Amino acid sequence: MGRKLKLAALALIAVAAGVYVNNTNLLTPHPSGKPVLLAHRGMAQRFDERDVKSDTCTATRMLPPTHDYLENTLPSMRASFEAGADMVELDVHPTTDGQFAVFHDWTLDCRTDGQGVTREQSMTKLKMLDIGYGYTADGGKTFPFRGKGIGMMPTLSEVFASFPEKGLLINVKSREASEGEKLAVVLNALPAERRRTIMVYGGDEPIEMIRRRTPDVRTISRAAIRSCLIRYIAYGWTGLVPPACRNAMVLVPVNVGPWLWGWPNRFLNRMTDVNSAVFVLGPYSGGESSTGIDTPELFARLPQSYSGGVWTNEIETVAKLAGKSKDQSATR
């Protein structure tokens, strides 16, 4: 019995040593470079995020503005790239005349002077709206952007034409497979090298369609990211990467990262080997989603010399922290 126990103990030690060697960062080359910064909705007006639900009109909860940019517009995206963003996230809706409108909300009533479901309009009509109409920081006493957003809702084609080489993350707002099919047609019309700079996320059904029809575009959906992270935590110690983590955009809440085998460097290398890109979000707290890395305190929670992706709603602040702002670049 004593001999068997010794053999069992030695076997257990050998397995533990193997797991350690297979996942330690001490033996892993450090990915070089600065973090890849993703500006959520571009340069946007911030709002009070407390108790926000899916149908909350965030334009009426705007914080006092510190800049004049409106989310999901070409000037907002341009300002984000100039501030140091490597990628910009944008939201799309199909229109009745066969285009994709770039706009966040499912309906027009909150932000614009229009009414109704966004995807039930023609792009011609959407171009006539004032997308800054509904923003107020004082309970409706003043509307600082009213009249300034007329005609500023862009099409996805206009975004592609304006930023032909920039990284873009497209958010599909519905759960309709047909929308994924329509977007796949648009993406497949682009050169292959352009598709490699684009990622798509959203509802499970449209994302699955894009994954099948446009396999060289990296994607993620809620079900896919859950499957990716849970399965990786379960058996990633072996070095195997779950199918849902492959050719994907892997979203990692900053408080979940330390639970991932080989975090950060070995994990980043494994994801790179399967053509996936990792982006860290704010902490996950059991709700529907996480926030971005938006403050110096949250940025400080990233691993030292972290070079993966960072999702932020505050690109100006985070670009400076990451040493990627235009002002810093000019002085180096």
UniProtKB/TrEMBL annotation:
It comes from the Bacteria. Residues 1-21 form the signal peptide. The keyword ATP-binding does not apply. Residues 51-322 form the GP-PDE domain. Transmembrane segments: none annotated. The keyword Translocase does not apply. This is Glycerophosphodiester phosphodiesterase.
